[in-house]
Amino acid sequence: MSKRATExxxxxxxxxxxxxxxxxxxxxxxxDENVACVRExxxxxxxxxxxxxxxxxxxxxxxxxxxxxxxxLGIDPxxxxxxxxxxxxxxxxxxxxxxSPGLFKKAKLYIGETENRYLTGEVRRKxxxxxxKLPQVTVNNKKQLLKDGETLRIGDIKIHCFLVPGHTxxxxxxxxxxxxxxxxxxxxxxxxxxYSFISALAEDNKLAVKSLGILKEKLKKMGVKPLFITGxxxxxxxxxxxxxxxxxxCSPFKKKVHDPSAPYDAYDESDDTEEGAKNGFLKGVGxxx
Length: 289
Prior knowledge:
This protein is α/β, with parallel strands linked by helices. It has helices spanning 2-17, 66-72, 90-93, 116-120, 205-222, 239-242, 274-277, and strands at residues 29-30, 35-40, 43-50, 53-57, 82-84, 108-112, 126-127, 132-133, 143-146, 151-154, 157-163, 172-176, 180-184, 187-190, 193-198, 227-230, 235-236, 245-250. The N and C termini lie far apart (42 Å). The model has no long low-confidence stretch (mean pLDDT 94).
């Protein structure tokens, strides 16, 4: 399923969102000395390395160039034994689906217990304003199910799990070492700050907006101001920028929320090169708000 769904997204979503100024993925490279990302067309997957531990955050598409791009970063796919999954959409789990090449077949998956209901078939994922039901995702990796508010450790890495439902019913975000918040598809960064993610793809937009507000308050209560690292629109260390429009939705049909600096076609990754991946840290957004 993942290969077919990957090709469908690459072709159809490239046409659908071309010129809409919606996706602004990071190119392959390092955000800082601990966190790296790989670009897969319009999406990013991430790696957090600390001491002897390397964890992967989301598993992207069923993407032919993944091993090559990981090599650009000096990361061996065989070294990845732990993968945090924010949610089960094709662009976040493709590399661990049953029809993938199996780069990470020995890795353990960590996924929210509510989100796991998609994988068991208890719930079916619906997109495009609930008009289209996606095929069930199948993975064979060992899984550890996570609860909202749970804290776990993988080697020297501390992970705090937050349930942020809306885009999917069981979407999780992960706060690592109180420094990095991997937000998956909960926040979309426009030129003027963060919005609730793309409206057409949510299970429940009202719930998604409510969840963002709750997440903000939880982080404030914890006294942390992490790097906000999104699945499709880069990263920021500006807390106020990240939540600037938390009560509003990103919509391809409302021009005011678009980002004019986004590429015309985010599925054209011709500028994502090995040379660029090794040429300094990747810049964030949100410094002028």
